[in-house]
Input
Amino acid sequence: MFHHSSKLQYHVKVDKPDPQFAKLLQQAIGGIEGEIRVAMQYFFQAMGARGDDRIRDMLMSTATEELSHIEILGHAVALNLEGAPVSLQEESAKDPVVNAILGGANPRHLLSSGLSAMPVNANGVPFDMSHVYATGNIGADMLANVTAEAGGRTLASRLYNWTDDKGMKDMLAFLIARDTYHQEQWLAVIEELGGMKAALPIPNSTPEEHEAMEHSYYYLNTLMDKEAPEGRWSSGPSLDGRGEYTVKQQPEPLGEEPKLGRAKEKSGAQKEQM
Amino acid sequence: MFHHSSKLQYHVKVDKPDPQFAKLLQQAIGGIEGEIRVAMQYFFQAMGARGDDRIRDMLMSTATEELSHIEILGHAVALNLEGAPVSLQEESAKDPVVNAILGGANPRHLLSSGLSAMPVNANGVPFDMSHVYATGNIGADMLANVTAEAGGRTLASRLYNWTDDKGMKDMLAFLIARDTYHQEQWLAVIEELGGMKAALPIPNSTPEEHEAMEHSYYYLNTLMDKEAPEGRWSSGPSLDGRGEYTVKQQPEPLGEEPKLGRAKEKSGAQKEQM
Amino acid sequence: MFHHSSKLQYHVKVDKPDPQFAKLLQQAIGGIEGEIRVAMQYFFQAMGARGDDRIRDMLMSTATEELSHIEILGHAVALNLEGAPVSLQEESAKDPVVNAILGGANPRHLLSSGLSAMPVNANGVPFDMSHVYATGNIGADMLANVTAEAGGRTLASRLYNWTDDKGMKDMLAFLIARDTYHQEQWLAVIEELGGMKAALPIPNSTPEEHEAMEHSYYYLNTLMDKEAPEGRWSSGPSLDGRGEYTVKQQPEPLGEEPKLGRAKEKSGAQKEQM
Amino acid sequence: MFHHSSKLQYHVKVDKPDPQFAKLLQQAIGGIEGEIRVAMQYFFQAMGARGDDRIRDMLMSTATEELSHIEILGHAVALNLEGAPVSLQEESAKDPVVNAILGGANPRHLLSSGLSAMPVNANGVPFDMSHVYATGNIGADMLANVTAEAGGRTLASRLYNWTDDKGMKDMLAFLIARDTYHQEQWLAVIEELGGMKAALPIPNSTPEEHEAMEHSYYYLNTLMDKEAPEGRWSSGPSLDGRGEYTVKQQPEPLGEEPKLGRAKEKSGAQKEQM
Amino acid sequence: MFHHSSKLQYHVKVDKPDPQFAKLLQQAIGGIEGEIRVAMQYFFQAMGARGDDRIRDMLMSTATEELSHIEILGHAVALNLEGAPVSLQEESAKDPVVNAILGGANPRHLLSSGLSAMPVNANGVPFDMSHVYATGNIGADMLANVTAEAGGRTLASRLYNWTDDKGMKDMLAFLIARDTYHQEQWLAVIEELGGMKAALPIPNSTPEEHEAMEHSYYYLNTLMDKEAPEGRWSSGPSLDGRGEYTVKQQPEPLGEEPKLGRAKEKSGAQKEQM
Amino acid sequence: MFHHSSKLQYHVKVDKPDPQFAKLLQQAIGGIEGEIRVAMQYFFQAMGARGDDRIRDMLMSTATEELSHIEILGHAVALNLEGAPVSLQEESAKDPVVNAILGGANPRHLLSSGLSAMPVNANGVPFDMSHVYATGNIGADMLANVTAEAGGRTLASRLYNWTDDKGMKDMLAFLIARDTYHQEQWLAVIEELGGMKAALPIPNSTPEEHEAMEHSYYYLNTLMDKEAPEGRWSSGPSLDGRGEYTVKQQPEPLGEEPKLGRAKEKSGAQKEQM
Output
């Protein structure tokens, strides 16, 4: 069950409201790198977690923290929209600041939300829940979470680089720090469960006889005019310890040419296809 | 530039066509765990790759292979739909096999595609390209790729477990194998670039002064009636080597209660808000 | 800031797991009548609330409760999926119960989520955040909330009618009760602010001179072969107390025929249009 | 059956074409507050209306009127795009008006529609029909309609406030007026059917024994550090006349901690989860 | 301006209600081959039509007819849902007809719409307006319309083939007939404007100097192990009369290998990329 | 099976990087008129092609070419983003070029993709695969392909008109040329199969007895105050040679008024409806 306390997890101050930056911040709320995504992803993973109870608790606990991050950012957006113009007066019509509202801002902050945050990204596209990655496989899910946090910290860093507002930089520095920890937290779960080698290949419960293992360890070079690049992936023992990496240059098809024959009667095709 | 040869990368045989399995296979084509996704994700990552040219080549090469996997699965769907009924005849109306077409199959395989594959998932929801994760940060992108392959192999294993068609099991065993390699291929890129420790936290180019590092290494326990779970994440040196993990039990808010005051005039609010 | 305690807001028991009902329950999680929607709607309204602080508190408080409802329903879905088949064995292939998995269940519960809840509706369509209605106008927002709760209670009643599982009926009876209160809670806010008459027309801050009031109080009958239906809407004082309702039968257009003339050069039209 | 007459329902004049305002107007066509939405919502409600025939007629009649509003706004968008630049000439490249096309306008008005209206919102996001709320419950549907009209009038007022074009203000004043009536029209249906008290809780056909009525009348305060706000919702007789409002401070969970146990074999989980 | 008369454009009778067929019919309402699409496509094309006024009138007139087709199909869906079960009683639990409701029917017809039509396709995916193709180029638009009607008639034929309900076959025969005419109507517009040869290539207003015409008339064979297929497209005068078709076997790239170099500082990439 | 060679199909040069043009170019990648769409549409049509094998080969061959066009455009976007600002420095804050980044550019090029192409359109809306039109009817599919290429060439011409960058004009001239050929290529397939007259009405395999042919050849004029426009569509032999065109002025409904009666018990309606 969820509870709420009235103060924000971290303080939010905007020194100079900027409706353009309000638009950019939306990416951290409703973008695929954003906080709605991680909150919901961890929440749904928690509800489907089977096995080690510690992981379920961590997922629910961090989901709860991410909800608080939405709250932080939502307030930051609203503060950046304070004082934004709602009317195109004669005198300000040629003022670049007013024009910027239309040009660089999200017009729906004015038209649809009454100068507050929306669950959309920096293009105004609403977040959709297909981005909640939750497979029920703890290995796949932890990797999805590290990925989400890596994207999140990349975004927060770019926002930090962009703005020159001291209050916003302070808030972003906090979010960058939490994204650091969360990246490592989910990787640490993999460590705790035996490490990456033991986890691979995911799912590690798939029996070897379900796998055509002669195809499991070669790099397939489909580039016709280039040699395969060499590296950790092209030779040496495999990361899962089950094989040895090789390279397949200029691969030949192993299958046949697909043919479907004529169309079935009454299937709605043209006569010429039947 | 892309080229095509007429044979499939791997042979596709269906012993007993099954329109229900055709519907399940769609998840491997148009699902978020599917082949369109990885093909397009690697393709767009390749087009934006900066830095080590080997990685760009790998991304483009594997994108190309994944296109061939779409082709394999698309043929498998069509073969599973061979002979599916297109008409509700009196005699077959109570036949469970015919009913299964409507019940367990995707009706749009009949109504919309003329008995062939579609770029949709097992619920008939079209793939949308927001799932192409490509940040321009090679660390975040490699993790997104491992995640995608982990999801893909989990799905392929579930499809393998479900079906009892020998031809389909053979095809899936091939795809499981390739997903094994691709998981490790992208992890091997991280190894090649210095390993996970050096990569963390992503992006590793963010200066430490952009980060409120006092918040970078604690597990935040938002669960009110439980102790924080202990593990690799709660104590010991951090995975990035920059700090030491601790736990923050029962966290207090660090910010203030957010207040927006009265609504601006002409902002479309109710009078009572102004 | 959000917190979590480990027990569910209400107890969840499933007497006989039913993967078909798991699919139906998804509508109450990820449908437009579902709990993600109200949780997020109240959350975003709270973050943008201006004016009376009590309303902001209520929005945040009830958003928090709705998050707990997601948790209840997510657990109910997982319990209904306990024991669902993951393999099509020879012997069970003709078993209608197994077939029902494919026919009446959501195949992604098996393929994608590992037998647990997903943020999708009963058709498997992911929830998208465009359904978070939050205008910043407290009148419009309260009505959107009553609407959401009315849809929610209608859905919960239909689920109650459908199932014969005692545990599920118990859980749904709780949700029906909370939807009762929430409908009235948001209407009570309108009462508290002066009642519906004072709230109308929303926004009540729009000056009368911005409105062509000669068009504000007639029912327009666009049906050519029928009289306008009579009722509270067709005569008598208007609900906002500003006018008197009338009926306009067989309306005439007040505007001109629209004409755009020829296409601009270089606008990509056909020559014949220029 | 539908018919059309060639003139617009209301006259549309644009004094000074403004591609930026064309973009804003799109919200009133293809936004969730827009005319496609109400036209389609009333149309689908009409097609599913059971019970009092007057309501079906009203729904179809007003659906038809809303189609005429799309037509008005579509023409307004095209007129605002008259004369918009289609080419980046040297001399105009630094002209802020030309730049505004790219900055403040929707580039697809130029690239995709040939300078005319599109069924998208002010962010260029296409309208999707999931926003057609039609439950078959006349109470829920009427509330959805009042909500839609409240959102619509809020939007129209904001557009009115924004523009300084006299022709556009005249058109918007008409739309504001019609939204006034439509809000009240749907509320008047509830009055006609017995009033709000009789309608509540929606659906009013749910038997009381389907409802855990001990949970139907309390405000649940999930805020840990604040008292529940007091008002019409916290004490006194309930709006439906069936109970008395109370407050539940600091609620305790009524359920158990959810546990799913180990993962099923062959379910695609990691070995460690089984 | 639109008007409505109360009778349907064509009579709708369902001899034996079938909730499974209700689901299939949804494709003709809310599918990409369906009536909402053509109604809205012609409507938006009409509102943007520049040049010959006859075409604008035809577009608006046929848009209006298509609205009447939605009405026909919406009623057909509701009639097919008459008597569908809303409760899972003990005795009927094993009845295949009741099971078919869940298996072969759209559960949201029961849960969400109260047994009536919805603006979704046969998979329950809501129609989205991105499928309204309207470019402002009359040639491209007419082709889009023929395409839509070709898809529509294909779908209607498949529905006709599927059902054995006499009333439904009668209704579909009407829709098939109208789709016949509409296909030809839009092709006839191209004839009227000078014929296909004059219309090509679309847009025919693009000056030849904007086109690298040495690339305008060859078939590019990207298949490495097959000759280009021969036909009308591989030799002879071009359909637009401006050139002669040829074939380019085994094409060589004309460009360079793309290289982006190192990542920019502060762009959020990994250090190794900079 | 697919292969790749490292050079681009055509050379890509940007004389003066322009982040605004990068945004516009996105329409040609991820718009409905763009290259992802045609690549995937031809690919899926190929996988479902039944009948004449030449057409399957053409579809796969041209799908492969379109993939190469994505590659060209993706590189063009990245080159246009070279040097785009990633930080809002004091001195540049009032620089219109920097402001244009936020105003006229896609902010996600900066925030999400690290200055490279994304699978989105010019509004930043991701491409979704519902736009892959593939019916299995070769007539409908060829028309869908001509339509797609007509839209594509219209877009490419508009982009050509807009930009003044010589390199970009050169690239676009190539794409315009290929779109010319592809339009005609698919029309030539119809010619090869017997011509448009033989193809009509699509599907040409629908038996005449499935069609209410008394409704197949009249133009229905639903405009109440205008005569039907005259032209090729209103008189003379039909394009399919099966009938004669006529006009139906002021059409009367042929059906009855739809009535659904009272709502079913337990269907979740209001009491008043039952």
